[in-house]
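Operator note (shift B, R.M.): manual run for Imidazole glycerol phosphate synthase subunit HisF requested after the automated queue skipped it. Running by hand, logging everything below so the morning shift can see what happened. Input copied straight from the record, untouched. If output looks odd, do not overwrite the archive copy; leave it for review.
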Amino acid sequence: MLSKRIIPCLDVKEGRVVKGIQFVDIRDAGDPVELAKVYDEQGADELVFLDISATHEGKKTMIDVVRSVASELAIPFTVGGGIRSLEDIKETLRNGADKVSLNSSAVNRPELLTEGADYFGSQCIVVAIDARYDEEWGTWRVYTRGGRTPSGWKVTEWAEEAVRRGAGEILLTSMNKDGEKTGFDLPLLEAVQDVVNVPVIASGGAGSSEHFYDVFTEVDADAALAASIFHYKETSVANVKAYLKEKGVIVR
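Run finished. Output pasted below as returned.
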């Protein structure tokens, strides 16, 4: 078993870290630079920074904040939100990001994945998939623009297409579970892992150390991401890792 990664996520709006429930009811969670320092010190394996208003409001990613956060980190750093072109990818990586996360822009123009992968390598290209279960379809549907707009893609089909186009990793968020703290969406994760051969990061639903154990042992996720339980000090990265080590899960 490869060592599992624990990844805090900074959802940033107007320069502040925020967190909501099922992508709404947003509340403040702190300063991104200060939180990044804390998570680095706690032993986080990576950090994800998502500018959650950039795509919806038609803005570009806050490069100055990205640069400030990157200056405090010694761990891999993924940045997403408002990245629409190869030039945007270049600018983001040149200002301290190790990877870019593409969501709406990739769904709108899948060629962007190939352009980024050809230029920087697939290891720099993460496809973020916001998934909500669609009763009519009987499966999960891809949403864009910060979870506001349903696309025409089934999640499993888009995951396959994204990897074919050059994505080296998938950040898979369950909108149904987001902020609920009831555990990760294991059936969703399993469905995507069955059709791709790249690492899948589980996102949405973490509420306890036990939930991380479940996602690593029941569906063998490569990494797990959480926000509110870390931001509001309900637990820490160090505590989660200590619990997983006790249970025999290999962590860094």
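Quick read of the result: Residues 5-247 form a domain with the TIM Barrel fold (CATH 3.20.20.70). The chain is about 35% helix and 30% strand.
Leaving this for review. - R.M.
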